[in-house]
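Handout, page 2. Input:
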Amino acid sequence: MIELDGTDFFHWGSDLTSFRALDRKADPSVIASRMLKIRDLTEAILLSPLDLDVAMAAGRKFIDTISGTYQIFENAAQGGPEVDSSVYIQIETAASRFITVLLAELARSNTYIVPARKGYSPRKLINEGLTIFPVGIEDKVPEAAEDLKEATKCMAFGLLTAAAFHLHRSNEAILRKYYRELRGEAPQPNGPSMGAYIAAMEKHNIGTPEVTSCLRDITRMYRNPVAHPEHFVESIDELNAIFGLVGSAMFRMLKELP
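Output:
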């Protein structure tokens, strides 16, 4: 996944369109400067992950035309011969052909709008997902951080069950660290399930009641359903409730970790 700056497309489209009808009275130095700019910007756009096929060849032809005629304008700006009208026509023809096929391909390109989710912008969920969780996760339980980042990315793109899956994985990583901190070198519970850890904590009377209560609620209401293929997280509100409850458990466990 690559994040693109929409302003680049805006400026590129405006500049590119102007090359369909160049002003013959404009100073050649001004046109030469614009040629360098449009050449570099077109090169960058063609290297982006846009789904271009036919337009790619037309774009390369336009870049080659700009590169091949640039020196003519530069020479004219330095007092050399005036630019012949055929040069203007060559550039305008290449630009027009490129724009025609580009518009046709952009109409079917893979372009999507990602909406905000529960007040969180797509940029925050995709690039800064850890900031919505309790502070200290990366320092205290770094192995839990990657799943949290994946959870918020899934939330951004509406993959609600997948988001819950990654969230539970991260919470269980924190739980394992929390259990080791409380029990020291004692053996881990039999079985990796959250229920096994809760039972062991209650058996040995370790962990605060708030933590075990949160964990039991997670297991009863959300963890077990997500683990079965016939169940799905069906709404963003349900996912938000999971985020809240799991976040509360994480916060309480992290407080007791060094």
